[in-house]
Amino acid sequence: MKSECALASPHVDIDIDAISAKISDSITRVVRGAPPAVYIRLDRLLEVCRFLKETAELEFNYLSNLTAVDYLDRMEVVYHLYSISRKHAVTLKVEVDRERASVPSVTGIWRGADFQEREVYDLLGVTFVGHPNLKRILLYDEFVGHPLRKDFALPKD
Amino acid sequence: MSELILASKNSALDAKIDTERITLNVGPQHPSTHGVLRVILTLDGEIVIDAEVVLGYLHRGFEKLCEEGTYTQNISLTDRLDYFNSMNNNWAYVKAVEMMMDIEVPERAEYLRVIMSELQRIVSHLACTGFFVSDLGAAHTPLLYAFREREEILDLFEMVCGARMTYNYFRIGGLANDIHDGWIPRLKAFLQRLPSKIDELEALITGNEVILARAKGVGVLSPEMAISFSTAGPVIRASGVPFDLRRDVPYSLYPRFDFKVITGKNGDIFDRYYVRVQEMRESIRIIEQALEQLPDGPIRIPFPLNVRPPAGEALSRIEGPKGEMGFYIVSDGTSISPYRVHQRPPCFIHLGVLRDLVIGWKVADVIATLASLDPIMGEVDR
């Protein structure tokens, strides 16, 4: 057992301008904040994820959270990334058509995406292309609909 | 040479033995599944060749319910996620709302939040350790040793909020009420006793030959896997990755306290247990420092019952006993109910790694590995 003294390495803010300059043709919008949020073009998602994970000075090796939000006019899939070694964070977002909600799976990049993508598929009806085992995870297989979609009607009884 | 021939003959013999695959359901009702969890094991003899985790038996539609309740009402729902961790659930939730509304919480409230959070961490680690040993077959002395101390902390929680499990103690902008006279002396007396009680519990486990045989070198999670699978808390730290949000993404008053980030080096079941035991000692240190610095003052800023955060979103990240936990909340700016609430559930994410940890091991190791991941189904299924 070893232990590290606390306070040795504080959190770092990321230079979002430098990053977005490098992948500018894949980005549709940047929202400043802590952490900053970057809207990615759907067809470039995997490419950007690999770039963020594999570039040495970025090293986003940790998928901290994955979820989606239904905005009725679109579906937004949200990826909260963090780098354990560099101690910085960024939020990625992709917008998809909610009628044909389909996003490439990032399970090949961060394996922790497996259960979280299944949950988004189950509750919001987003298909993750390339997921090794995409099926419902919290609800039963016979369940009809996706309850976290805003137009889902609760059963009457 | 003859040895070589013998060896190749033996392997040819092995290849011919056709064993029948057996499918074994562990759960959904099983004494060692920590709630209603089902694991479908495919076995070759006693060796696990595949494992599928089946979830959802306790799904209550938490996130959907949050869209119906108001921001304030939802605090009481978070108590029911990981019920060994209600104080931290409360905290992560109100923190996300406070981030959206840009609220500063009074200092005394922040200190009390840290104290409650660390006490809750001790409760969670005690329970996990007790259940872990009882899953290995040591019924029930170590579990009762652990629960005897947990009981003391539940008494302390009951004194501040009237409940032993579902506290509903945090409020947006502070806490529900201040602590009573007599609470701090009782806490101090308990803290004085606790280290020797942890030693007592540890004496039953740490050097125990049976435990070592079952836990050392079993269920090994490599640092690369631990990061890739998004594990957190004691699970990732036992694999040697020093990731602790209290230090790495400092929140609340944690920069004011001196504590150590405990890591293991083998990432096996034993290290996960041992990291938890040592973390309890660090929690005691943090509480002692917080008690020393605790100022007088208000415990809550004046606040309306219903709030309407401006349109936007926030993700809170705090270090719960099981690992990184937080709430992602989206507000539409007009409603007194959140537009969307999502919890980052460490227990749910930890179960994702179970399959990779148990393949190639024996059935009994599945039980030990599962217990070392410390899943609480209230949070897994939400």
Can you describe this structure in just a few lines?
The complex is a heterodimer of chains A (157) and B (382). Chain A has 157 residues and is α/β, with parallel strands linked by helices.
What is the CA–CA distance across the termini of chain B? 62 Å
| CATH level 4 superfamily of chain B | Cytochrome-c3 Hydrogenase, chain B
Approximately what portion of the residues of chain B adopt beta-strand conformation? 5-15%
CATH domain class of chain B = Mainly Alpha
Main sheet properties of chain A: 5 strands, mixed
H/E series of chain B, N to C? HEEEHHHHHEEHHHHHEHEEEEHHHH
Oligomer: heterodimer
Number of strands of chain B: 10
Q: How would you characterize the largest beta sheet of chain B? A: 4 strands, antiparallel
Overall form of chain B: globular
Alpha-beta classification of chain A: alpha/beta
Helix-strand pattern of chain A, N to C? EHEEHEEEEHE
* Poorly predicted runs of chain A: 1-9
* Strand order, largest beta sheet of chain A: 2-3-6-5-4
Spatial separation of the terminal alpha carbons of chain A:
56 Å
List keywords for this structure.
heterodimer; A: 157 residues; alpha/beta; 5-stranded mixed sheet; two-stranded parallel sheet; 3 helices; 18% helix; globular; disordered N terminus; B: 382 residues; alpha+beta; Cytochrome-c3 Hydrogenase, chain B; 4-stranded antiparallel sheet; 3-stranded antiparallel sheet; 50% helix
